[in-house]
């Protein structure tokens, strides 16, 4: 798995930067005192795809930035992502993440909350090391978006009447916002002009939102082994994602999603809902929405000249849409 | 209660600044979207003593600072304090704080974790508005200290062999660090020289540590109604504070604190421990340590000329030591 990931083409132009990001993450663990050190080693040992720091690094590569600021920012972005994963797992009572036991399941929610806070702080320290107030402010705003996106998700549980707009607003906050910041800050730290900064923000925002839509597709389409949790677990826990909302839109009468939300024969209706989502035209519409978001992301880059880094960024966009799990 | 607090003398020279801090806190709630708005209104409605922002404001007053930066910083410091209270209550499963039901008990730990994160983010945004990178960095380092202090406390539960140094290191992190930052940043934002900045940092660090020692005294000395929890609840939950550690030092054989930590006849030994702490010479020693910390705090201010603001800062130091609950 890891081997396959490192072979992804979009890593090639940013190999140095990614190595520096990886070193920074390891240093966060090795530079901490016991007992935090051991806890962080557990967190950092789970190697993710590093999609968010890759975006920051590729944007800065497109813009020919030759400072180490984008690598510092890449580490900040990944640390923030790891912090939110820890709090999300705690909130969701999740036992496993990326094939490893979660902090929360191993050491209890108390420890997980505090280690998450500690990682928030280390991410803030990294972003401060960019010495760029605009980037630091954007980062703080993103932490706000991330938590308010999660909170809204929590409070809108089982509200099957919610609109597509509400869904998009929520997933922009909980996922798109960090992609937007990853891309935008790469441009700011490269000294880009306002129009270019805005273009990269649009790119990141749409790509991150597409990333979440694909996640929401996988929750219905993946096999239980692939996604490491039961199929349809979002709906089962009351979270209404695009596939479920489109199913309600298309079949407003006698809808199994509505029944699940209202607690009517939950088990039978869960099965029916998953089945209908998979086998109706709904899934094609959801894919089309994800594709449209990706297209909007890529369009934002149209004014930029062709380059190896730009092609890598397009490849990363394909990867986000085509990934399984 | 509230009336008594606002009558405290040290508020007088900083009334304007405190009003601005209060407005900022209310704006955090009123400026948020539902459902977060309602949650934050609950948090902000609990009016604390605002000791930490008072320190930032008084330091800047001593140094004749006439910008609004200290008030912005005061809000940041209080927001961070409120965020940590929410996470602490969640970690401790506390039902009541300052006479009101905790977020965690009302809306569940999931919501409390996320609202805490949201408040961390708003505090970060406020500190960014000081536009001072040094202050922002110090603030991030403080969030790290706060969470690592709490984590260490968690992992050192029931370790009655721990040293006084370990205790002080831990309480500096969990309490002293934010007082130190409150004082230091007041000086930095007032454009003070390095020696003065360092003096205020020493002041804040020692005062905050004394504040925590007094807290730890109250846990043994206060009545259950006064402190809103059972007497000796720190020890009961495995947290070894200075009174308990000094009792172990003084009576190394057949010590009830050791028995509680080792789970031997817990209830009877808890009662015995509380009784011994209250009625032996141990408490006098703990008061002496708190007094020494306060003296060190005040000594740091000796080189500064007398002024109304300086006298107010000394009064605040007395208040910290003499407060009940």
Explain this structure:
Helix content of chain A is 74%, strand content 1%. Chain A has 16 helices and two strands. Chain A has a two-stranded antiparallel ribbon. The longest helix of chain A is centred in the middle third of the chain and has 28 residues, at 194-221. Chain A is globular, with a radius of gyration of 20 Å.
Largest interface: A-B, 40 and 41 residues
Helical region count of chain A?
Answer: 16
User: Could you name the ranges of chain A where pLDDT drops below 50 across 5 or more consecutive residues?
Assistant: 1-6
Strand order of the largest sheet of chain A: 1-2
Largest sheet of chain A: 2 strands, antiparallel
Order of helices and strands of chain A: HHHHHEEHHHHHHHHHHH
Distance between the termini of chain A: 12 Å
Helix content of chain A: over 70%
> Strand-residue fraction of chain A?
under 5%
Give me the count of strands of chain A: 2
Structural class of chain A: mainly alpha
Radius of gyration of chain A: 20 Å
Quaternary state reads homodimer
Mean pLDDT of chain A: 92
**Tell me, what's the shape of chain A?**
globular
Describe the secondary structure blueprint for this structure.
The structure is a homodimer of 325-residue chains.
Chain A: H1 2-6, H2 15-30, H3 36-45, H4 51-62, H5 69-92, E1 96-97, E2 100-101, H6 103-128, H7 133-155, H8 164-189, H9 194-221, H10 224-227, H11 233-236, H12 242-250, H13 256-261, H14 266-279, H15 282-299, H16 308-322
Antiparallel strand pairs in A: 1-2
């Amino acid at each position: 798995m890891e081997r396959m990931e490192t072979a992804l083409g979009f890593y090639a132009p940013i190999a140095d930067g990614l190595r520096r990001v990886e070193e920074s993450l390891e240093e966060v663990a090795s530079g901490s005192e016991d007992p935090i050190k051991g806890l962080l080693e557990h967190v950092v040992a789970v190697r993710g795809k590093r999609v968010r720091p890759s975006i920051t690094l590729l944007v800065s590569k497109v813009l020919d930035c030759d400072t180490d600021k984008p690598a510092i920012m890449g580490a900040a972005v990944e640390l923030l992502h790891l912090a939110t994963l820890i709090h999300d797992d705690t909130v969701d009572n999740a036992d496993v993440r990326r094939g490893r036991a979660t902090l929360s399941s191993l050491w209890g929610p108390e420890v997980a909350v505090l280690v998450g806070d500690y990682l928030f702080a280390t991410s803030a320290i990294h972003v401060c090391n960019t010495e760029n107030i605009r980037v630091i402010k954007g980062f703080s705003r993103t932490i706000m978006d991330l938590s308010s996106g999660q909170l809204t998700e929590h409070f809108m549980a089982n509200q099957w009447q919610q609109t597509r707009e509400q869904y998009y607003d929520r997933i922009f906050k909980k996922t798109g916002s960090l992609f937007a910041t990853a891309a935008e800050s790469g441009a700011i730290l490269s000294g880009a002009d306002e129009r270019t900064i805005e273009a990269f923000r649009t790119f990141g925002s749409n790509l991150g939102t597409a990333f979440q839509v694909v996640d929401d597709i996988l929750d219905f389409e993946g096999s239980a082994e692939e996604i490491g949790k039961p199929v349809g677990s979002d709906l089962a826990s009351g979270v209404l994602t695009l596939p479920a909302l489109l199913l309600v839109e298309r079949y407003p009468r006698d809808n199994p999603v509505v029944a699940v939300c209202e607690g009517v024969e939950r088990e039978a209706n869960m099965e029916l809902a998953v089945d209908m989502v998979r086998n109706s035209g709904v899934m094609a519409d959801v894919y089309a929405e994800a594709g449209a978001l990706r297209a909007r992301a890529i369009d934002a880059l149209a004014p930029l000249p062709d380059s190896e880094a730009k092609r890598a960024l397009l490849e990363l966009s394909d990867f986000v849409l085509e990934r399984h799990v």
